[in-house]
Amino acid sequence: MYTPLLDSIRNSDPSGARVILESLLEDGRGPWAIHEALFPVVQCVLNPPFINPHLPKMYAINRELAGYLEQEDIAILVRVEVEEYARREMLPPIARPSFVSDVDDFTDVEKAIVTGEIETTAKVLSAFMASAGPLPLVKHLLMLGSGYLDRSLGHSISCTAYLLIEMNIRRDEDPWPVMVSLAEYFCKGNFSKKPTLQYSAISDYPEVYLLNLKRAVSGRGIGPLHHTITLYAIEKCRHFLGHQEYDHALTMWNKMLGDKTEDLVPVDEVASLPLPDYFTFFHTFLESDPIKILEVVKNSLNSMDERHRLAQFLIKAVLQCYNGYYNPHYLTGLGAALWVMDRFHEHPDVVLTCLNQYLDFFYTGVEVGSQGNSRGLKSI
Asked: How far is it, in rounded angstroms, from Cα 43 to Cα 328?
């Protein structure tokens, strides 16, 4: 039933995809079921001139964003993502091999990446997973990506992590599309040599971790935003890693921060206002003033229910401002900011600085005052 929609996306036909999606929704198809059906085609979505699999990562993070939303709002999320997938270039299809040879040494994967041959690398990745199992493949790829954080602006872990997380959730589905996407990315990035594991004990000292987190959430623009997104991805894939591997990932992330210093929002200078109804919140959001949003963030941090409601409002507002062309970081960066808000709510200086970082990035790229609700909640 979803084949026509998937074909429209594969053919980079946003108009056709839009019509088919609305027909599915009108026929009573659940928006989340539609999202789930997009998995194989989303792995092929490109974002030139960048080599990073931004859209497959966004797709995986949308699973977390959807957890905050009501059913009718999930339909808005699906409208936005279908529009974004369908308007972009696609990786040419690569057929799954009928026969997979035995590969039990990860150095064979590294050698395949060096050749730059995507199909060969995908086959070797698939063969290694068949021989060694999914978890060893995940660990090796994350450690391989950890050696290139500076060069990739963190994507060699953040994108890799979320593609693997989504693949792990879908254990009953064919992993081949993920193998192709990862092969394409690692070949183009020439991420071919695992670094020696490094250990700095960041994970053993919460106060050191917090100091580095404060540096990460400081600063504005796409670079600093990726400092936060990279940590978010490391923490989300932590369950795949042993203690030393986890600390190694944090160590490489810390090196990625370089000599960056913290520059925190002065909490005492931010007013504390109750979270209003969504209609009022959205009109405040349209003023493009991060401080006005931080005022309700500050007041919501001590309540789990209020944090959840605030997260829901922020996601809806970002979706409702959709202008037909979204940088995928508007959603992936939001996922990272909401993770920081939930996990570090006892540190308002961290949360306010992180949300300020994200909102500054979003408002710089989206003229919400002029867009507003021009496309409408039901007509995105």
From this structure: 14
Tokens, residue 169: 């959730």
Mean pLDDT of 250-277: 97
CA distances 250 to 8, 202, 241, Å, are 40, 7, 12
- Mean pLDDT computed over 276-284: 98
- Residue 51 tokens, joined: 């080599």
Is residue 262 within 8 Å of residue 218, measured between CB atoms? yes
237 neighbors 167 (Cβ within 8 angstroms): no
| Total residues belonging to the chain | 380
Nearest of 332, 131, 165, 160 to residue 239 by alpha carbon:
165
Do 263 and 336 form a contact (C-beta atoms < 8 A)? no
Q: Give the max Cα distance, the chain.
A: 64
Q: How many CA within 13 A on the CB side of residue 14?
A: 15
Q: pTM value? A: 0.95
CA 188/CA 152 separation, integer angstroms = 11
3-class secondary-structure state, position 50: strand
Domain boundaries, the chain: 3-86, 267-371
What residues contact 133, with CB distance under 8 A and at least 6 apart?
A: none
Reduced to 3 states (helix: H, G, I; strand: E, B; else coil), residue 47 is strand
Give burial (CB, 10 Å; 0-12/13-18/19+) of 71.
exposed
Residue-level pLDDT at 99: 75
